[in-house]
Write a structure and sequence with these properties.
It contains 2 helices and 4 strands. It starts with 15 loop residues before the first helix and ends in a 9-residue tail after the last strand. It is 13% helix and 38% strand. The longest helix has 9 residues, at 16-24.
Amino acid sequence: MAEYRFLTTWLLDAPRERVWEAIHDQNAWPSWWRGVEEVIELEPGDADGLGSFSRLTWRSFFPYDLVFEARMTRVERPHLNRGAGRRRAGGRGPLAPL
């Protein structure tokens, strides 16, 4: 199975803590992040979200949705959110192990 890593760098003129909180709150992503269609929290994790497990649906110019499930594996306020996931294209096909 192919491996995919998602890393992005954004340069924003805003306080780091405010930006981090917006990115950390993945349930709100569909309201401001173009392409994020839906986020469903399946397990909440601890007070910082560590261990949370969610299903995310993304839409792009491709003729299908990208659906994947991710678990938050590392949280370092206000610097880092890291997760591990498994995916399926268009909601079809088997999920890779998480």
